[in-house]
Specification:
single chain, alpha+beta, 9-stranded antiparallel sheet, 10-stranded mixed sheet, 19% helix
Length: 549
């Protein structure tokens, strides 16, 4: 609850549920967020041997890989730890290679599948073959409830965990045990890396991650531990983990798994205090290995479970793999509670001097409540303009049954009507939307604004937010009566990169004002017929009335 005791703001993740309610909650979350991680040398491969330990499936609840199984093989996920290379010699056949390398000639089939050899009799001297590493078995969860299923993919996760959202970054879902700080975040999208995307130069992959870890976390993070696996169907699984120390000296664990399938790629980023739950490394490895895609009905070329184009991830300037989140920036946010920014981003922020500072006087209480919650300010404490410098994202969404409020990466569920009544003992005013826009002028470093407020006829006040990079304006799906007539304010937004205007702009036919926005990359509009957008040929994505130009 909010410190002021009046607004009734709650974190959206507090309401995540399981079963039927979970599926409903998931759809809601997708609709909302769709708008909006001892020294080891770089490239060293760390493989798990299983130490010969024998366990029944999920007996310990730790999902620990083992080298031998008891019971049914179907109670385990088979993975191969790492790979090696073999050069075919004169007189070799796949059976003899499997016999010499694995001690079992029947594993020649595995060599054929892993190297996409259609005719096992057709190999030649000098041919390079990739040989699968040691067989390991990851015990499946006993009594699984089916995990998360999304049509074209599914994966298992602990049956006593909840599903919800996260404030660690955009385009991430979250799995978490109730009452704990640990969470496993995830994203699934189209695979543009190939099924063995990082294997071609695994050393470069490791070097990149080591370099970025140092850039983002410095001495607070321990060394990275790398693992690679191959699944029975040929998919690659990449995994790394490390420990991170917070300001109080407490150790956290971050574990990251990437699954590269034929059509989809999945990333799982687990972060939490060390050993708060069973070893997080084992859980993330298990979830990643259990991920399955289903392309039986086709998968769109641009598939993403979130919004796709135009969305930026935290720490992109310190990351080399587009389409994956910067796991170290996610780890930083989890441990510190603050979004990571590069030195260039820090330098670009506007800082209010002591002489310029002032106590903010709010036009309306809704945005104020969210900011007080974010800053952990009580009702009577003054809020200074300098305290708003770190806020770069604001969003308000009127939506039944719960309204939503965004402050940076925090998401709060509330009722705008109830907040106004608690503060003013009256109904929501007609000029509520204009008052919100007036309050936004106190935020010196706003980069993203998301508004879904009914009955707004003008957004002209947004023209004063000249540092905006992303602007998303919409209405409730049933509110199309109040149409915006003037969009000249857009000409002041010279830094704008992502623009999305829906439902309230259907009478606009002249969009030439966008010529004044030289940095536009992603544009999505609902507008009148016969509009000329030829001057936007340079943008990366232009969607008008549902059709891509």
């Amino acid at each position: 609850m909010c410190l002021c005791g009046k607004c009734g703001l709650t974190d959206v993740t507090d309401r995540a549920e399981t079963g039927e309610n979970m599926r409903y909650s998931r759809k809601r979350v997708l609709k909302i967020t769709g708008w909006t991680a001892g020294i080891i040398l770089s490239g060293m491969l760390v493989q798990l041997s299983g130490a010969g330990q024998v366990r029944a499936a999920s007996e310990s609840g730790e999902y620990t890989p083992v080298s031998r199984i008891t019971g049914k093989e179907s109670d385990y996920i088979l993975v191969y730890a790492g790979e090696s290379e073999y050069t075919v010699k004169e007189g070799d056949c796949l059976w003899s290679i499997a016999k010499n390398c694995y001690g079992d000639g029947s594993r020649s089939f595995e060599i054929a599948v892993n190297n996409e050899i259609k005719n096992p009799d057709l190999i030649y001297p000098g041919q390079e073959l990739a040989l699968l590493g040691e067989k390991l078995y990851i015990p499946k969860q006993e009594g699984s409830l089916g995990g998360l299923q999304y049509g074209v993919f599914q994966f298992d996760y602990p049956k006593d965990w909840a599903f919800g959202t996260t404030n660690l970054d955009t385009e991430l879902g979250a799995l978490y045990p109730r009452g704990e700080k640990t969470e496993v975040t995830f994203n699934v999208s189209r695979n543009n890396f190939g099924r063995n995307g990082f294997s071609a130069d695994f050393e470069a992959f490791c070097e990149s991650l080591n370099r970025r870890k140092e850039e983002v976390l410095g001495e607070a993070a321990g060394s990275l531990q790398f693992e690679t696996y191959t699944l029975e169907n040929g998919d690659a699984l990449y995994f790394y983990s490390y420990e991170l120390e917070d300001k109080d000296g407490k150790l956290w664990t971050e574990a990251v798994g990437y699954r590269l399938c034929e059509n989809l790629k999945a990333e799982f980023i687990g972060i939490g205090p060390k050993d708060e739950v069973y070893p997080l490394e084992n859980l993330v490895r298990y979830i990643t290995a259990d991920f399955k895609e289903d392309a039986s009905e086709g998968i769109d070329e641009d598939f993403s479970i979130w919004s796709g184009a135009g969305v930026s991830y935290m720490g992109e300037d310190a990351w080399d793999y587009e389409g994956f989140h910067n796991a170290f920036a996610v780890g930083y946010k989890a441990v510190t509670g603050k979004a990571w920014k590069s030195s260039a981003e820090q330098a670009a922020l506007h800082h209010i001097s002591e002489a310029e500072d002032y106590v903010v006087s709010w036009e309306e209480p809704i945005l104020e409540c969210g900011v007080r919650r974010f800053l952990e300010k009580g009702e009577e404490e003054p809020v200074y303009a300098s305290e708003l410098e770190e806020i770069t994202v604001l969003g308000l969404i009127e939506w039944y049954p719960d309204d939503m409020l965004y402050v940076n990466d925090e998401t709060y569920s509330c009722s705008f009507e109830e907040i106004w009544q608690n503060f003013e003992d009256c109904s929501l005013p007609d000029d509520f939307g204009q008052a919100v826009i007036q309050d936004m002028k106190h935020f010196a470093n706003l980069e993203t604004v998301l508004l879904q407020i009914s009955d707004l006829e003008s957004y002209s006040g947004l023209g004063e937010l000249t540092g905006l990079k992303s602007l998303i304006l919409s209405r409730d799906i049933e509110d199309r009566e109040t149409q915006v007539k003037d969009i000249s304010f857009l000409g002041n937004l010279k830094e704008l990169e992502n623009l999305r205007l829906e439902k309230a702009f259907e009478e606009i036919t002249d969009w030439s004002v966008l010529k004044e926005c030289p940095n536009l990359k992603y544009v999505k509009l609902e507008t009148g017929e016969g509009c000329d957008f030829s001057f936007l040929e340079g943008v990366e994505s232009l969607v008008v009335n549902g059709e891509e130009y």
